[in-house]
From TrEMBL:
Protein name: CapA family protein
Similarity comment: Belongs to the CapA family.
Keywords, in A-Z order: Membrane, Transmembrane, Transmembrane helix
Signal peptide region: none
């Protein structure tokens, strides 16, 4: 492996994040000051707001709009913003603001490489995500596992049956599909060595996509990534218990991925994230391929991660869906299977879906699963009978939890 990536990258990311937060805070202070001055001027011109003067509206002013909010002139008849009232006169809001929760969306393995890349070149780079984009984009934060390097450099790994390489042309469509975060801790991101993985991290950085689970050394690889939305900070920790060779593991002076064969470093990262975030998500690559149920190391690690402070544990690698577990008031999804992946001869590897979690700032989450089936590497909602059958099977595979016909996942007493 070569060591081409600057060891200061993590420091730069932290400084950039701090600069961004400082800038947002400064903008908020300035906006409050502008509003206060405008109100004072209006009152002074209108007799301090007395009702005995002629009725008039304050002049329209241009002020910054929160991202995704309605324009200032699109209000209801009573002067309230349109976002506060629906067509029936009832109050409405986004899923995140309705009850103070933030809406997260999770999927399994995403592979913009191999046969999927061929389909993207033929049908457009947005092709795999067209039927799922609405659901992904409706979440405040969407996350998945990126199962390939994005690079034109590097030497292919030896003694591997499958070696993947994706194209940078596909990365913008990952962002456009609604994704905000990708885990890079898996058994394919080093298929083209550190050159390939370093390029992958750069490509995601350039697209504004957060990532975790890999780095120039172990400190960067285990470092949590943080995303703040609607006043809630979500911390992501990514680790893998599937490493093809020891050289892939990130060490003190060695680049690679964050491994979980020894859980201590992962536990430390989770505890660090807990100190800095309202909600902690652990995305972990583990288990046995095409196994319907988790093996012992999955349940053991999942419980350790929750005990350390994880609110959600999201698994991948088996390439098939596994069940859910309610554990100490937190949630574990043992495998979300393939999401966008090369089609195989096994129908179960094409059964997929989007896991949604509406989480309060204290980490309490309500889960639901939207069943999908991927045809030619394009996941789309299942027909109702097939969807209900899949949800029923997932309910049978779950522990201390049940999955309803509507996709709602609830803890059993």
């Amino acid at each position: 492996m070569t060591y081409s990536r600057s060891r200061t990258l993590n420091v730069k990311k932290t400084k950039k994040r701090n600069r961004t937060r400082a800038l947002l805070a400064l903008n908020g202070i300035l906006l409050c000051a502008i509003v206060a001055v405008a109100i004072a001027v209006w009152k002074s011109k209108d007799g301090n707001g007395a009702a005995d003067g002629p009725s008039r509206e304050p002049a329209a002013t241009s002020s910054p709009q929160p991202s995704g909010s309605a324009p200032a002139d699109s209000g209801s008849d009573d002067g309230r913003p349109a976002s506060e009232e629906n067509g029936d006169g009832e109050e409405s809001a986004s899923p995140a603001s309705a009850d103070g929760a933030i809406k997260l969306a999770f999927v399994g393995d995403v592979l913009p490489a191999a046969k999927v890349l061929e389909l993207m070149k033929i049908n457009g780079y947005d092709y795999p995500f067209r039927e799922a984009k609405e659901l992904l984009s409706s979440a405040d934060i969407a996350a998945g596992n990126l199962e390939t390097p994005i690079s034109e450099r590097g030497i292919p790994a030896e003694n591997k049956q499958f070696v993947f390489r994706g194209s940078a042309e596909a990365v913008p469509e990952l962002k456009n599909a609604g994704f905000d975060f990708f885990s890079l801790a898996n058994n394919h991101t080093l298929d083209y060595g550190w050159d390939g993985l370093s390029d992958t991290m750069d490509a995601l950085d350039d697209a504004g996509l957060q990532h975790a689970g890999s780095g120039n050394d172990d400190r960067e690889a285990y470092a949590p990534a943080y995303i703040e939305k609607n006043g809630t900070t979500v911390g992501f920790v990514s680790v893998t218990r599937v490493v093809p060779e020891v050289a892939w593991k990130a060490e003190r002076n060695h680049p690679g991925v964050a491994e979980a064969y020894s859980p201590q470093r992962a536990v430390q990262a989770i505890m660090e994230a807990k100190e800095n975030a309202d909600i902690v998500v652990v995305m972990v690559h583990w288990g046995v391929e095409r196994a319907d149920k988790p093996v012992e190391h999955q349940t053991d690690l999942a419980h350790r991660f929750v005990d350390a402070g994880a609110d959600l544990v999201i698994g991948s690698h088996p390439h098939v869906l596994q069940g859910f577990e309610a554990y100490k008031g937190k949630w574990i999804a043992y495998s979300l299977g393939n999401f966008v992946f090369s089609t195989t001869t096994s129908p179960k590897t094409s059964e997929t879906g989007v896991l949604s979690a509406a989480c309060d700032k204290d980490g309490a989450c309500k889960l639901s699963f939207a069943p999908m089936f991927a045809k030619q590497s394009q996941p789309a909602p299942m027909e109702e009978p097939e969807g209900k059958a899949l949800l029923a099977r997932l309910s049978e595979l779950s522990y201390g939890a049940a999955v309803g016909e509507d996709g709602a996942i609830v803890a059993k007493n």
